[in-house]
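Reading group handout, session on sequence-to-structure problems. Before we discuss, look at one worked example. The prompt was deliberately terse, the way you'd type it at a terminal:

> structure Inhibitor of sigma-G Gin protein

The input record follows.
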Amino acid sequence: MEKLDDVCIICDHSDKKGFHLCHYFICLDCHNDIVQTSTDDAKYQFYVNRLKKLIENKIYS
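And the output record:
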């Protein structure tokens, strides 16, 4: 059974495969994209902004 909170913090899709980081779910597809994206790629800043949710909610929780 899929948990309701297993919605990827990056792509906002539910996925059965992934992991939790600071109580947030990251699907394996996004994880693979993140680690394969170079810092000079336009997608890099998108991933940085999405991952800021982890830090912002950790500080204010």
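Points for discussion. First: The chain is about 45% helix and 15% strand. Second: Residues 42-60 form the longest helix (19 residues).
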